[in-house]
């Protein structure tokens, strides 16, 4: 089979245009083209009036050897790489203890699924609730101002990614095609098949709920076990080796292999691990606000006369600006046609995030506008207190709670007022989507001054790339503090903690991923390393 890349066609090409285009590109007769499948489809929108679709295709032809020779110097034609997933080992018949996975976000689910498929019958522990019960608790905060600290946007089956845009793309290097395995498992669990080939696949919250349930069912059918309401209180560590986990109800589960996939908001778990001597270091992350614009405005700015095209869908963007104060300001987790949501997991604090449904049909576009912060910015000495980034997050989340009126309403400000340095007292054209509501104010008390300075410089710069980005009535909502984990639980080449054998830090919380797809890939890698460790020490 051949892989053909960079085949370009007009956005409005006919449905049957691909086959003749392939034949023309390869210089073959139609009869010599046996079949083809779309591996990837993206678009080039730099010329808004002439947007092109770009295809990567896998092709079966009758004269493959001759074509490979003919196009030997053409980097766009070559053999199709083998992307089929291959298990690295299988569980021994005399397995002494079952591996434990802590967390059911995308990292924990994929780690648990791979271990189950290899026969290791993992025990998966989740402090929160099953996804449908968790959804009710999450709506309880959004609609009734009632927070459940153990069941919310951050904690519960599916992880933080369940209440997001469900974006399934990443810039990680993936030479073993683990990302393909993640997407395949998602499709088996109910995701639309298009995620296998569109350039920026996404699922949306409602579809993610059912998918997560289906993946759980597969794990249990393979002998795995998923327990909810099972908070890990501490690890059992003897001579720098994990020997088990202790749950909040007092139960001890004996194991020598623990996947730690707790997500970036498990602050109490990080504190416990640090107190137990697990090596942790502070790492940079970013903070800022959510910004909302009319989605129609973003569509027009990005796609011009092609705005509204079904294939293009709701437009997204990715922006970065290097500021005079030496910091980078950038857009993050852009959610087309979505809404801004309450994402705190602690009482007395306000945290924002963004999400979309599969349709991306809501009136507003939203994205985080954030500025990088470094361990040197954290209170105290991050070298002696690697959890200082958590203190930093809490400081500004608490400030946002106060600025929002000491409820879970979020502080908000019109972009025009923000740029002018004056408080907002009213809304304009853009109606913010945040639930349980916003309180118009001055956001300068909600983040450090250098973040305000950077964003006031960046927003007009972004307006040069997307006309209307600095519109006066666009709304900023604070605060976005959980862009990534504030710590890294350092691991070695064998994926185990550098000072605690049998502990496999994984995913976003441990500092090794930054989204659904990358977290899933990391879960696979950790599961493979754990499985090989057991198989090699039988």
Helices and strands, with pairings:
Elements lengths: L1 E9 L7 H9 L6 E12 L7 E10 L2 H7 L6 E3 L20 E3 L3 H12 L5 E3 L5 H14 L33 H11 L16 H17 L3 E3 L4 E7 L2 E7 L4 E3 L3 E3 L6 H9 L5 E2 L2 E10 H9 L16 E3 L5 E15 L9 E4 L8 E10 L14 H16 L6 E5 H6 L17 E3 L8 H15 L11 E6 L6 E2 L14 E3 L10 H21 L2
Explain this structure.
The protein folds into three domains: 2-77, Alpha-Beta Plaits; 100-281 and 492-536, FAD/NAD(P)-binding domain, CATH 3.50.50; 284-480, no CATH class. 27% of the residues lie in helices and 23% in strands. It is built from twelve helices and 22 strands. The chain is globular and about 70 Å long.
Salient structural properties:
single chain, about 550 residues, alpha+beta, Alpha-Beta Plaits, FAD/NAD(P)-binding domain, 8-stranded mixed sheet, 5-stranded parallel sheet, 12 helices, about 25% helix
Uncertain residue segments: none
Summed up, the domain count is 3
- Gross morphology is globular
The CATH architecture of the largest domain can be given as: 3-Layer(bba) Sandwich
Q: Which structural class do the helices and strands define?
A: alpha+beta
Beta percentage is 15-25%
For CATH, the homologous superfamily of the largest domain is named as FAD/NAD(P)-binding domain
CATH class of the largest domain: Alpha Beta
Which fold does the CATH topology of the largest domain refer to? Answer: FAD/NAD(P)-binding domain
Count of alpha/pi helices: 12
Instruction: Describe the main β-sheet briefly.
Output: 8 strands, mixed
Helix share bin: 25-40%
Number of strands: 22
Average pLDDT score: 95
The span between the termini is: 40 Å
Q: What is the gyration radius calculated from CA atoms?
A: 24 Å
């Amino acid at each position: 089979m051949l892989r053909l890349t960079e085949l370009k066609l007009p956005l409005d090409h006919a449905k049957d245009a691909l086959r003749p285009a392939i034949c023309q590109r390869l210089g073959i007769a139609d009869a010599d083209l046996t079949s083809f499948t779309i591996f990837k489809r993206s678009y080039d929108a730099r010329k808004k009036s002439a947007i092109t679709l770009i295809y990567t295709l896998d092709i079966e032809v009758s004269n493959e050897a001759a074509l490979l020779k003919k196009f030997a110097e053409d980097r766009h034609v070559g053999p199709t790489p083998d992307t089929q997933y291959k298990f690295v080992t299988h569980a021994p018949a005399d397995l002494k203890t079952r591996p434990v996975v802590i967390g059911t976000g995308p990292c924990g689910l994929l780690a648990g699924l791979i271990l189950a498929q290899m026969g290791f019958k993992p025990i998966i522990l989740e402090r929160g609730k099953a996804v449908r019960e968790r959804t009710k608790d999450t709506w309880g905060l959004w609609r009734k101002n009632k927070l459940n600290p153990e069941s919310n946007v951050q904690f519960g089956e599916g992880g933080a990614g369940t209440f997001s845009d469900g974006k399934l793309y990443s810039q990680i290097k993936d030479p073993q095609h683990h990302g393909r395995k993640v997407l395949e498992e998602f499709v088996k669990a109910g995701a639309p098949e298009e995620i296998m080939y569109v350039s920026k696949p996404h699922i949306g919250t409602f579809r993610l709920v059912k998918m997560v349930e289906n993946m759980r069912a597969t794990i249990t059918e393979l002998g795995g076990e998923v327990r909810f309401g099972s908070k890990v209180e501490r690890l059992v560590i003897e001579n720098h080796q994990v020997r088990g986990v202790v749950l909040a109800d007092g139960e001890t589960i004996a194991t020598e292999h623990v996947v730690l996939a707790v997500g970036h908001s498990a602050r109490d778990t990080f504190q416990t691990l640090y107190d137990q001597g697990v090596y942790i270091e502070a790492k940079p992350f970013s903070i800022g606000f959510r910004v909302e614009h009319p989605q129609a405005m973003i569509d027009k700015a990005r796609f011009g006369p092609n705005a509204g095209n079904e294939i293009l869908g709701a437009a997204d963007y990715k922006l970065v600006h290097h500021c005079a104060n030496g910091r980078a300001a950038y857009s993050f987790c852009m959610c087309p046609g979505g809404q801004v949501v309450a994402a705190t997991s602690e009482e007395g604090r306000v945290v924002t995030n963004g999400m979309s449904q599969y349709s991306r049909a809501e009136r507003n576009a939203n994205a985080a506008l954030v500025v990088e912060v470094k361990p040197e910015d954290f209170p105290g000495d991050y070298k002696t207190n690697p959890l200082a980034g958590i203190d930093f997050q809490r400081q500004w989340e608490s400030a946002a709670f106060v600025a929002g009126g000491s409820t879970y309403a979020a502080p908000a400000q019109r972009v025009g007022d923000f740029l002018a340095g004056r408080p907002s007292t009213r809304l304009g054209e853009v109606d913010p989507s945040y639930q349980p509501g916003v309180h118009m104010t001055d956001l300068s008390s909600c983040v450090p001054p250098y973040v305000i300075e950077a964003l006031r410089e960046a927003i007009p710069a972004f307006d040069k790339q997307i006309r209307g980005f600095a519109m006066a009535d666009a709304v900023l909502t604070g605060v976005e503090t959980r862009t990534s984990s504030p710590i890294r639980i350092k691991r070695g080449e064998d994926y185990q903690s550098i000072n605690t054998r049998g502990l496999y830090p994984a995913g976003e919380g441990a500092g090794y991923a930054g989204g659904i797809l990358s977290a899933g890939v990391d879960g696979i890698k950790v599961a493979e390393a754990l499985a090989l460790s057991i198989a090699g020490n039988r």
